[in-house]
Design a protein that fits this description.
This protein has about 180 residues and is of the alpha/beta class. The chain is about 40% helix and about 20% strand. The chain is built from 7 helices and 8 strands, in the order E-H-E-H-E-H-E-H-E-E-H-E-H-E-H. The protein has a 6-stranded mixed beta sheet with strand order 2-1-3-5-6-4. Strands 7-8 form a two-stranded parallel ribbon. Helix 5 packs across helix 6. The longest helix is centred in the C-terminal third of the chain and has 13 residues. The protein is globular and about 55 Å long.
Length: about 180
Amino acid sequence: MTTAHTRLICLLGNPVSHSLSPAMQNAALRKLGFDAAYLAFPVEREDLPRALEGLKAMKALGANVTIPFKEEVFRLVDEIDPDAEVLGAVNTVIFRNGRTLGFNTDIHGTAKALEALAPDERNAALLLGAGGAGRGAALALIRAGFSPIYLANRHPERAEKLALDLGSQAESGQLR
């Protein structure tokens, strides 16, 4: 039951009407007995800074960030987790003590999936996409020792930028 004590967690992006996140997250919150509601909010790019400020003012717990705002939110939060700093992209914002804290959980999700595969040898990888989630996946592949990692994107310049941005994290020739 939603009350005045129910906390807000949300998804910010555009579009978000197709997202299954509210159904999945609300089911998990109920199962855990956590008094919170997860809602998806479509936000226009020019409204994104005000949306974050509004959530902070309402003392929301946090927000997930999706297309097309992961790199933009990176520039809007007060503090950035070291992994998000490396990637230049934020997909999770926590509101704490009047501040916004930015994280990128794409790295950890990809790393867990790679662990589940448990390959005996680290071979080459092909990464399709160089946006916010692709950036996290690339860092997870680098840290897991895959080499070489081939980057492909609809816009080749984005793949090239990702290779440049993460070059300091990779061994010579690891990203292609």
